[in-house]
Design goal:
Elements lengths: L2 E6 L2 E9 L6 H12 L4 E7 L4 E6 L6 H10 L11 H5 L12
Antiparallel strand pairs: 1-2, 2-4, 3-4
């Protein structure tokens, strides 16, 4: 995980990269992106499926990295060291599950 503080005319934002090692396909990338975009304080999301990274620009006065990780976990995916929510993972489409679980 890397962290960069960006200060501009619109206030302070931070940029972080969250490892999404359990993401498997485009549906995963869309689900993770949507989960993050629904979090208050998130300004921008870019999911790089090849690198298995979600880059997030967010307002640290509104949301913390742990909240971002929790949002991804609650969508059914691992986020850094935060395990996927088991119930959410069970409900993922087959293509979004790890190969061993298909």
């Amino acid at each position: 995980m890397s962290l960069l503080v960006v200060v501009g005319c619109k206030g302070e934002v931070e940029k972080t990269e969250i490892e999404i090692s359990s993401a498997q396909c485009g549906m995963c990338a869309n689900a993770i992106s949507q989960a993050l975009k629904n979090v208050d304080g998130v300004k921008k999301v870019n999911v790089d499926l090849g690198a298995k990274i979600a880059m997030v620009i967010f307002d640290p006065t509104v949301v913390q990295i742990e909240n971002l990780e929790s949002s991804i976990s609650n969508a059914g995916y691992q986020a850094n060291e935060t395990s996927a929510n088991e119930e959410a993972y069970k409900n993922l489409p087959g293509c979004c599950k790890l190969p061993a679980d298909r």
